Amino acid sequence: MTLLDVTGLTVTGRHLVVDGVDLTVSAGETVGLVGESGSGKSLTARAVAGLLPKGMTASGSVTLSGLQLLGARERVLRSVRGSRVALLMQDPFAMLNPLITAGAHIAESLPRTRAARRNRAQRGEEVTRRLAEVGIDDPSVAGRYPFQLSGGMRQRIALAAALAGDPELLIADEPTTALDATTQHEILMLLREVQRARGMGVLLITHDLRVAFEMCDRVAVMYAGRIVESGPGFDVAKVPAHPYTSGLLAALPSVSVTLPRLEGIPGAVPSAGDVTGTCAFADRCSQAEPGCGHARPPLREITPGRHTACLYEVRPRPHAGSRAGSQPATLREAPAGGPLLTIDDLRKQYGGHTALGGVSLTVMEGESVGVVGESGSGKTTLARCVLGLATPDGGRVELAGLDLTRRGRRGDRAHRLVQCVFQDPSTSLNPSLTVGSTLAEAAAQGSREGRLSVPELLDLVGLPASYAERRPRALSGGERQRVAIARALAVRPALLICDEPVASLDVSVQAHVLELLRTVGRDLGTSLLFITHDLAVVRQITDRTVVLFKGEVVEEGRTPQILDAPTHPYTQKLLASVPPTP
Amino acid sequence: MAVLTLVARRLAAALVLLGALSVITYGLLVASPGGPEQVLLGTRPSTPETRAAIRAEYHLDDPFPLRYARWLGDAVHGDFGVSIYSREPVADVIADRLPVTAGLAGYALLITFAVGVPVGLVAAMGRGGLLDQGITLGSLVLLAVPPFAMSILLLYGFAVTLGWFPVFGAGETFAERVTHLTLPALALAAAQGAMVVRQMRAAALDLAGQDFLTFARARGLPRARVWIGYALRNAALPVLTVGGLLLAANLTGALFVEQAFGLHGLGALLIAAVSQKDIPVVQALVLFSGAIVVVVNLLIDLAYLVVDPRVRHGAVAL
Amino acid sequence: MRGVLAGVLGLAILVGLFGSHLAPYDPATQDLALGAAGPDAAHWLGTDDLGRDVLSRLLTGAGSALLWPVLVALGTTTLSTSLGLFAGYRLGWIDALMMRTVDLAIAMPGMLVLIVLVGVLGGGYGWSVLAMAVLFTPGDIRVIRSLTLAQRDLAYAEAARTLGLPPRRVMFRHLLPNLAPTVVSNALLSFVAALVSLAGLSFLGIGLPAGTPDWGLMVEENRDLLDLNPWASVAPVVLITLIATSATLLGDRLFDTLSKGGSR
Question: For C100-170, where are the E strands, in sequence order?
Fold first, then answer.
């Protein structure tokens, strides 16, 4: 029975953002809407709930069990929201009212007719019952305020509040993106459990293909405001019917195999309004034909329930074989040099919180070491201590014979030995300086001999020399991270620290940057200390892995060994939380 | 616990502020041209006898800290001595003038919020539209016009040219008072109202973009619950803070407005006392207004404690 | 729009510099027989009750009315920007001490203290200007410091430190340009505040001897002439209002343009 039926949904703000989306969700079914940033997936979700931001309008048709929601009066929508459709959003820190308790969020969302008749005690019992449904057995949580709860707890409270009105359809917009890997896994499992127990329809919006395939019965892939492919999750994962899906799958790093080459998709997502009359993907497509640019390919049915917006059959990817896991590639030769970075019993406290409780690790010359951990593991503090951005309370950091922890000894040599690529591409470059002056300034900090010029640096990271004139605002996220890498390499450091350099990038861009870090490290002989939460990324880029948990090293060893046969329970839990790569 | 530390810290800060103000004001007497003797003598003839009487009466031969402590002790009990100009107790002089200023300030605050809040909301609702642009521009302009300039413009426009309102004075009956105080209150409220408009607009726009508001609507909560429990409660604090800032502006603004409209309130009293070097009155007025600022800010802090659990539990520093 | 605003301000500054040379009469020359009269061909803005030419007094007064505020704006902006940048970047005990002082200064009813100090102790423009600079600086320090604090932990600033750039270079080459919109609008707002406060003080008859050709004083002295020659009082009010609003609007526009366009 079709619960939600979306036909020809178009959303326009200043520009066209969603262009003719068709979608159905049946009762008891989970449908995934997958896309990278800018695909219009979130606005599709908002439009379905009738909660578009101001200044955006939707046209087409959205019906819920036959009731037209698009253009319905606010009074009608209010009676539908909560009790028939619920929306769960991404950021658990922003979604709850900071001024009221967790319990109050749930209580106020309970069905109004019954809630009104219930007395205080009964309402309390009901809240406790609802908390138990989302896996919170401690009823005292109801009395806590959002700021007193962890991200995962907040997301559970939000889910309980969203479900309090017993909706038939739950729209979950990136419900786990802001959470740690293990928490993400728990919430996804909870969502599945609740969905099955209630027989509810779920529309899951996500950027993560792996999550979509793991969770959903059917998957629709969005690109530049339209759906380019849809079908049963399993089929789409195995035999993608659109070059874009195929490209995304190829760009996906795997946690189980080291791929010989990571392939991104060249170019950037066009604006939906610029490609209305053509195939939206034609410009980036490796198998585009002249005809692709002439007319918009319709979403055609290839087999029952399976649709694609490509006119042609998708060619298999060249290295699909290695994905099957027959021949895992080795990254590089075993490093020959002696120890470059030695960290010994490093300690750091922030207030009463122990960020680092005595961490020791070594990076050899030419070696690539991954530091894996979730938020609060101390991995970023570790990097900051090595970089001199934080002062450790105890322990020793020695880099190429230089003791970095002795005050005043950092001098002007430390910055030539270690550099860093930071996480956030939106702030990694100074917005008021051109790319050229940023790079020139960095290069001038290095030693005179072997100094690279700005065009050489740009070439090193695969950007044209003309980019020197640009300011960061005119660059995409991936391009900015490339410049940030060039800036870090400009002083020719012996050690490059990468603090989650790809965590904020779309998967098609992430592959490019990872591949760049891999080759550049190899070519220049730079050692890498790679800090990440993503085990699949670690697999692709590191020789050795150190697992950090609450400021302590819990496991350490060669990357393939750690990922294939983890011994510590925490590492095992981390690995179990990674959604299977298709 | 967190509440106690917060209140203690705030009280300490208030005491430091009042202490600093009291030192400055007491210092005025010492530092004023001619020295304390001359000032305290005022217009009385300066003979050795009168000078000696003054020295004895005000203990001028004691060391400075002792004199200051004695003066402060009296001040805390509301005794600021006698006005040099009128020879009446300072407290009586102030009590006499207070109603006019209180009426003016209260009237102005009423106009400020009664106009500022809805106009700010209207601007936020029609964000980017012509009305919003007009309101934003208008509030910027009003913000730049000082109260005394606004007073003269209003006087010239509405009292002299149009003759709708009386030109000077405060009036006798209540109705007279209201008409007499309308232009001054408007002059005082213009810039403050503009500030409230801008704050309200910013707070509303900030709220509109908050996920928790969208999430509340997504759960189909009744309109009243969304508006009162979510929007109003979260917007109240920033607007309240502005209220505290407004008060300080109100105090000095009243000075100019009273002068421009010839109202005999505390502002006019201060100006007169300053020009007559009537130091006891000046000291009392400065400390009095300092105390008002301190008390209102403490009340605002308390409001934060009541409304925001994060402050209550010490999770956010105020 | 921005052109018009900048034009108004530029013209005002020019008049401030050369106004006294343009005045058709000596601003102090009295014509008691004429007394307060409305505008005519000889006196474009009429005369005050002592028969002094209003236009000449306006032009002569422009210098002190406008140039002192420019000085205050430059002084407070330079001081607050460097102190705020320093405190926000270096942190530590200097910052803590500075911020406690700033908190105290901000909590004071500053204008009131200013009026009382200048009024009781006397001493003309000089003291008023100095006191004003002391009065306006703390608020700006706080703003600049909090912006610096927000910028210093952004990735680009950490990268600059990691590159081993000296603190001065990080502060002035990396952080300062990104604070430019605020610095510029702060400067204009300080100018407005100084203009308005200075005129306000003399309106209250504080700090200046009677008879000085000063805008604020003219407003006060000619307030009773609103029916005889309203221009004597309204003209300086209009000028103050016009210049203050132009500077405020310009600050607002510049802030928007700089925060948007500065990085294109």
Answer: none
Q: Which neighbouring-strand residues pair with A34? A: A206, A221
Which token pair is A43?
A: 């606005």
pLDDT at B17 exceeding the cut of 80: yes
d(CA A223, CA A175): 20
Please report which residue ranges of B128-173 form alpha helices under DSSP H.
130-144, 147-154
Interface residue of C112, C118, C136 to substitute, partner B, most B CBs within 10 Å: C112
Model confidence over C205-247: pLDDT tens digits?
A: 887 777 788 888 888 888 887 777 888 888 889 999 999 999 9
Confidence of residue B53 (pLDDT cuts 50, 70, 90): confident
pLDDT at site A580: 82
> Stretch C121-147: mean pLDDT, rounded?
85
Mean pLDDT of A266-273: 85
- Judge whether B70 is closer than 8 Å to chain A, CB to CB: no
Average pLDDT over residues C195-199: 89
- Both tokens assigned to A58: 């939707």
Report residue A14 as tokens: 């200043």
Question: Among residues of chain C, what percentage have pLDDT more than 90?
Answer: 30
Burial of C65 (0-12, 13-18, 19+ CB in 10 A): buried
A residues 65..84 contacting B (CB < 8 A): 77-83
Which tens digit of pLDDT belongs to each residue from A312-366?
Answer: 888 776 554 444 444 444 445 555 578 999 999 999 998 888 899 999 999 999 8
Residues A488/A420, Cβ–Cβ less than 8 Å: yes
Which residues 6+ apart lie within 8 Å of A30 measured at CB? A192, A195, A201, A202, A204, A215, A216, A217, A218
Query: Residues A361-384: what's their mean pLDDT?
Result: 91
Measuring CA to CA, which residue among B93, B95, B50 is closest to residue B276?
B93
Q: Is A150 exposed, middle or buried (0-12, 13-18, 19+ CB in 10 A)?
A: middle
In DSSP notation, A507-546 reads HHHHHHHHHHHHHHHHHHT-EEEEEES-HHHHHHH-SEEE
Sign of the CA dihedral running A525, A531, A536, A542: positive
Which contiguous run of DSSP H or E holds residue B275? helix B266-275
Name chain A contacts of B233, Cβ cutoff 8 Å. 97, 99
Highest mean pLDDT: which range of A464-468, B28-32, B235-239: A464-468
- Label residue A413 by pLDDT band (50, 70, 90): confident
Distance (Å) from the C-alpha of residue A304 to the closest C-alpha of chain C? 50
Q: Check residue A310 and report its DSSP letter.
A: -
Mutation site for C-interface testing, chosen from A402, A415, A419, A432 by largest number of C Cβ within 10 Å = A432
Residue A499 belongs to what H/E stretch? Answer: strand A495-499
DSSP state of B156: I
Q: Does residue A131 contact residue A106 with C-beta atoms inside 8 Å?
A: yes
Is C154 part of the contact surface with chain A (CB cutoff 8 Å)?
Answer: yes
Average pLDDT over residues A433-458: 91
User: Strand A201-206 and strand A169-173: pairing?
Assistant: parallel
Is residue C22 within 8 A of residue C199, CB to CB? The reply is: no
Task: Quote the Cα angle for B205-B210-B211, to 5°.
Answer: 155
C interface test, pick of B133, B148, B195, B245 with most C CB neighbours within 10 Å = B148
List the Cα angle C111/B297/B241 in 5-degree steps: 90
| Structure token pair of residue B302 | 């308390």
**Cβ contacts (< 8 Å) between A86 and chain B: which residues?**
218-219
Beta bridge partners of A403: A398
DSSP state of A305: T
pLDDT surpasses 90 at C76: yes
At A248, which amino acid appears?
L
- Asked which of A114-123, B41-50, B62-71, B300-309 is least confident by mean pLDDT, the reply is A114-123
